[in-house]
Amino acid sequence: MSNPNIEQLTAAQKANAEVMMALLQSAFNGVERLTALNMAATRELFNNSVASSQQLLSAKDAKDVAKLNSELAQPNVDKLMEYSRSVYDLVASMQKEVTSVMETQYSAFTKNASSAVEKATAGAPVGGDVFAATMKSMLGASTKAFDTMTSMTKQLTDMAETNMQAAGKTVSKTVSATAAAAKKSAK
What we know:
By secondary structure, this protein is mainly α. Helices cover 94% and strands 0% of the residues. The model has no long low-confidence stretch (mean pLDDT 78).
């Protein structure tokens, strides 16, 4: 093995280690943010449960309990939707970070592979151009597949965003209708 090949191998290993470190850093940051989100949501749930229980215990009759239940339902659903939205935003953010790292890595890989194919073609014996053409074709196909996968990921993310918004609106309308019905029956 010649010295330039060892240097290339070392550079490739270093680049791969940097990519792994970036992915691990992204994962740890995501876990840290999710943990903080869950702790805040748990604290808020506990505080709201205590306050709601105290309000329900102060009710004088069944009508008051029904009225309080309907009044307490909407804020809880709103908080649940807010929590779900925060989790979704966190996951979408992590997905974007990972995709960005992978796109950068893939771009560097295709650039290096194309360069290697060009060098091999220049010094190849007769018939080596068929191998080079095959390699170029494979690189082109893998680039197209990677682009398609990236596009599909973006479309799926957009669909999930739309579905999350629609679900939030539907749940909010349902809770509002239920609260209105409970108020009518309490009168």
